[in-house]
Structure formats: structure tokens, C-alpha cells
Amino acid sequence: MGHISENILSLRQELPSGVELVAVSKFKSGEEILEAYEAGQRVFGESRPQELKEKALSLPKDIEWHFIGHLQSNKIKMTVPYVKLIHSVDTPKLFFEIERWCRQNGFSIDVLLEMHIASEESKQGFSDEEVMDFLAGIEKARQSWDNEGYPSQVRIRGVMGMASLTEDEALIRREFAHLNSIFDQIKATDYPFLGQFDLKSFGMTHDYHIAVEMGSNMVRVGTKIFGPRGVRLS
Predict the structure, then answer these.
(1) pTM higher than 0.85 for the full model?
(2) Among 160, 169, 166, 171, residue whose Cα is nearest residue 210
(3) How far is CA 113 from CA 36, 47, 52, 94, in A?
(4) What is the three-class DSSP state of 131?
(5) Is-contact 71 92, C-beta < 8 A?
(6) What is the mean pLDDT of residues 179-207?
(7) Are 202 and 216 a contacting pair, CB within 8 Å?
(8) How big is the chain by its Cα radius of gyration, in Å?
(9) How far apart are alpha carbons 135 and 125 in whole angstroms?
């Protein structure tokens, strides 16, 4: 058994029931992904549309692909047809561009709203006020949309966030607690268009153990599975 397989099995034993493992496979080869696949992993996360498309077309069709990177509007057509979930909807503009493309091309997609919870300004995402204004705007506008109620093409399933890259566990916990609070506030609005709002995607290789303790039900782990970027585990 290779190291990738061993890492997958170890993580699966460690993660509680109900926590989805997204194996972050960006920059990793098809061979490496197949080793994880043979160990039973089926959900993989990519962040570059062209790489995602190539892998989706060449690797087993029962792989569930997630897009976890920053998505540009002009790359929607290279992304939506191949993924089940987009983790990184970070502006109203992107949301409505995805919605428009899906309507025009007969696709539907699940998305998460990316929240800015970290101390680093370089990270992207909605602020608390922005996301609540965005959702209120959808509720106000939906009466005038072509479909009755919320259009089914883009379904908002939950939130995603990235904590600060730090050794300060207290700060990480505060940031994850903030994301939990936003999730609860959104869910409490009870907007009919939210439907199945149940996903909290937070936690990566360096902080997933904290995330799981704090209620994450979807973690995105790459280095702990595949090793550092550019390193082949064998």
C-alpha cells in the first residue's frame, strides 16, 4: 500500500461520521489521484478550470469534483459542467453569472458562499454585512424572476471559509466560531430559496482537527494526503 492510500485510510478513521473529506488534488497527477481513488476516496477538489476539465474527462466518471479556488466569470463554462459543488462564490456578480450561464446551457449546480473570516486581507469572500444584503436582495428580487420562487439552477447549500494561516489556535477557533455564527444567522432567516442549507466547509491540512471539533462537516485536505506541492509520495 502506498503512502497516499495509507493517508486516506488514516484520515477516514480519524474523521467523525458525517464529515465529508475533500481530497485537494490540484497540481497532482492522475496517477496520484487514482491511488487515492483506489483507497476509496471519491471527492476531489480542484482550483484551476483547465486542469479540472482535463482530469474530469480522463479519470473515473464516478469521481465527484468540487471547485475550491477563485472562479473567474469567463471560466464558468469550463467549470460548471464537471463539478457537483462550487465552494467559492464570493460576490453577487459571480453568483448571478453562474445562474445566467446555467439557465442558458441547461445546467444546475450547488454552491457555497465564501465568507471572509481571516485576519489576512488577501483572502476573499463576503463580509457579514455583504452576505446578508446579498440574500435580502435575492428574496426581494425573486418575485420578478422568470421562474416562480428561487430558480433551481443554482442552489446555495452553505458557507465556506479559510482561517488565518497561523499557529495561534485561539485565533483559528475565533474565526471558525465566527463562520458558525454566520451560518446560523443565514439559516435563521428561513428564506424559502435557501432550501437545503446544511454545509459548512472549513478546515484544511493545518487546522482540520480544530474545524471538526467546531462543527465543520466538510474539510479540504491536500498536503496531509498527497504531500507538499511538487513532492510525489511513494
Answers:
(1) yes
(2) 169
(3) 28, 16, 20, 11
(4) helix
(5) no
(6) 95
(7) yes
(8) 18
(9) 14
